[in-house]
Amino acid sequence: MAFNLAQVHEAVAAANPDRPAIVWRDRAFTYAELTERTRRFANALLERGIGLHQERSGLAGHESGQDQVALYLHNGNEYLEAMIGSFKARAAPFNVNYRYVAEELRYLLDNASAKVIVFHSAFAPVLADVLADLPQLQLLVQVADDSGNELLPGAIDYEALLAAAAPHRPDLDWSPDDLYILYTGGTTGMPKGVLWRQHDIFISAMGGRPFGQPTPFADLDAVVEASVNGGAAMMSAAPLMHGAAQWAVFTAFTGGNTVVMPNDTKRMDPVDVWRTVESNRVLSLQIVGDAMGRPLIDELERATYDLSGLLVLVSGGAALNSTLKERFLEAVPHAVVLDAVGSSETGAQMGHTSTRGSAATGTFQPGPETAVVSPDLTAELEPGSPEAGWLAQRGHVPLGYLGDAAKTAATFPVIGGVRYAVPGDRATWRADGIIELLGRDSVCINTGGEKVFAEEVEQALAHHPGVYDVIVVGRPSEQWGSEVVAVVQLAEGAEVTDDELLAEAQRHIARYKLPKAFVYREALVRSPAGKADYRWAKEQAGG
């Protein structure tokens, strides 16, 4: 059976109408209430002619036949309602990085040809600066917050929009070919809109396979049957503008579970996160790598929380180093840490589970559609191949990049008659079936004829207790061509020398990979989801 996200959500909600779907602060929305609110949003779009204009069969992989809906929002029930409601109108929602300045925001909204923008009032001043440059825009929907900003001219209040719309199910035939769009973070280049068929992203990353199973659900009845046994509280501390957070939330919905949000959705407050986990007996908490993990684990070691209900800490989107994993597992010994590897262009690819006393980072059990392909993109490598290749995904992969045929062809090559997603990570496939992830090629440093992957050096340095955060980049060097430089944020009160950091790193990586220089900054620049901004780090390093 082919799946559609609106169809799945309606079916799960119908089977579990009175179960809490979203819990945020003092609000709780049952599945029945969420269904009505998403239908109202869908009907509000449809009343204005916003939705599908051309079926998928007549389009190339980089083209969209649907209207795009920008979600320029902090986390909250409105983000999920507008997202699911757009699906129900057969429009295509997409994520907006709410830290963008006007120039970046203008580029993104124009690149996506946004017909609708749903935004928090806090972002009204930045949005106002770019509206004149968006002639395709038809609808502004403003979500009230504590900013005090008034409605922009022509904007409609979100709650007023819902109140005026019909609550019935839209009279549409939802299709598995309807789009799910995820914009890349743009930390190494301009953001790109990845176009997925909803069926493919559902199978790949949104709960379309029973947990731990390689085979997808057989049909909608099987999804519904499994959801009846749900009801667990699941939480993401990451912004919903990040793919890993969206996938975690929709996986929770597919299973009929309750999505819990921390009280503070504008920044990650470790105390707030752990209090929310404690009070809601959250079963699974999703974060993004060291940038989120370190402050959360620091707080666990400062104060006592009842985390007896927490069984899984999931890190996706960035690596969580093994030292932090061990510290977490010492504090919550009954839990496990799950590393989930994937990207906007691949969905979920592989994972690694760490338990107390056996934490590791960098090696993974591949998923059923994960592959490693040769450096020249001509063949799929077999386990045990001596050469490093490209980490790839086949089967349920995206259609392409919105509006960019050339980049679509480059990232989604056909090898031996099979279409792959190859977003740019290097990996080796060991004879025992385990994949070693080397790192993103776009931030690989060629120094003295050797390739050094930035993430590997970052992980080595992160073991030092004095390192709070680190980003590794290359800068020009007369001697080496390019030399490795570490941009470091020290832990509060820490005093660390370059030699001490080198000594720690040397315990984990070869000498030629060691930084030739260190640059210290009070804080490092990362995306709201915790991903490193390598362009900023290069500027700091003199690159």
Give a short overview:
This protein is an alpha/beta fold and 543 residues long. The chain contains 16 helices and 28 strands.
Can you describe this structure?
There is one protein chain. The chain is of the alpha/beta class and 543 residues long. Helix content is 29%, strand content 26%. The chain contains 16 helices and 28 strands. The protein has a 15-stranded mixed beta sheet that branches. Strands 4-3-5-6-7 form a 5-stranded parallel beta sheet, sandwiched between helices. Strand 5, helix 5 and strand 6 (139-143) form a beta-alpha-beta unit. It starts with a helix and ends with a helix.
CATH topology of the domain at 5-18 and 28-212: Rossmann fold
- How much of the polypeptide forms β-strand, as a percent range? 25-35%
At the first level of CATH, the class of the domain at 5-18 and 28-212 is: Alpha Beta
How many helices does DSSP assign?
16
Rg to the nearest angstrom? 23 Å
Q: Could you describe the largest sheet, including whether it forms a barrel?
A: 15 strands, mixed
Helix content: 25-40%
Structural class: alpha/beta
Shape: globular
Mean pLDDT: 94
Describe how the helices and strands are arranged.
Blueprint: H1 5-15, E1 20-24, E2 27-30, H2 31-47, E3 68-72, H3 77-88, E4 92-95, H4 102-111, E5 114-120, H5 124-128, E6 139-143, E7 156-157, H6 158-164, E8 179-183, E9 193-197, H7 198-205, H8 220-227, E10 233-236, H9 243-254, E11 258-261, H10 270-280, E12 284-287, H11 289-302, E13 312-316, H12 322-331, E14 336-343, E15 347-354, E16 363-366, E17 370-373, E18 389-394, E19 400-401, H13 405-411, E20 414-415, E21 418-421, E22 425-429, E23 435-440, E24 444-447, E25 450-453, H14 454-462, E26 467-477, E27 481-490, H15 498-506, E28 517-520, H16 534-541
Parallel strand pairs: 1-11, 3-4, 3-5, 5-6, 6-7, 10-11, 10-12, 12-13, 13-14, 27-28
Antiparallel strand pairs: 1-2, 8-9, 9-19, 14-15, 15-16, 16-23, 17-18, 18-21, 18-22, 20-21, 22-23, 24-25, 26-27
Helix pairs in contact: 1-2, 1-3, 1-8, 2-3, 2-6, 10-11, 11-12, 14-15
